[in-house]
Amino acid sequence: MSAVLIILLVILGTLLALGVAAITATVLGANKVRKTVKGKQELVPGHKSAAPLNWNGSPKREAVQHRRLVKAMTLARSVHSPAEAMNLGQQAVRIEQELVRAALLPKANKKAALDNTDELVSAVEELAAGAFERNSSMPTIQTDLSELRERLQLLAEARRELG
């Protein structure tokens, strides 16, 4: 074989390998993004969401309600006991299923269905927020910061007096 042919084969092989590597990296990256996005939609950890992926950024009413529901459940898991969060999570999953069904309805029926789910989503948000307010450590943090501020002021005054 001639040297030119060998060089062309090496170049072709290299380009082919680079193309396969680029496609593989793209597929792996897309799968990772899909899994991450799907995980952010979960109302209950480990329970696959019924919501379509395009609801993550959609301005549609059902998508907004779903995002509100996810946010409320994240808050609930952070402040409720595991048993309470699981009970609320089960209700949230049922609401999510209703949201998916409502999204499939014709426009004439969709508004009424989404009005009902909006009330349910608001109830979940209220339950999560109520638990947050009951379990919030904000007053304790504010008190601790005030006490620390006083001690630092006293320390600064003592240093000034000592010279």
How would you sum up this structure, described in words?
With 163 residues, this protein is mostly helical. It has a domain at 53-142. It has five helices and no strands. Helix 2 runs antiparallel to helix 3 (82-103).
Rounded mean pLDDT is 85
The secondary structure category is mainly alpha
SSE order, one letter for each helix or strand: HHHHH
Low-confidence stretches: none
Rounded to the nearest angstrom, the radius of gyration is 28 Å
Backbone shape: flat
The portion of residues assigned to helices is: over 70%
CA distance, first residue to last residue = 91 Å
Note the main sheet.
Answer: none
Number-wise, the strands total 0
List keywords for this structure.
163 residues, mainly alpha
Topology of this protein?
Elements: H1 3-40, H2 61-79, H3 82-103, H4 107-135, H5 138-162
Helix pairs in contact: 2-3, 2-4, 3-4
Quick gist of this model?
This protein is mainly alpha-helical and 163 residues long. The protein is 82% helix and 0% strand.
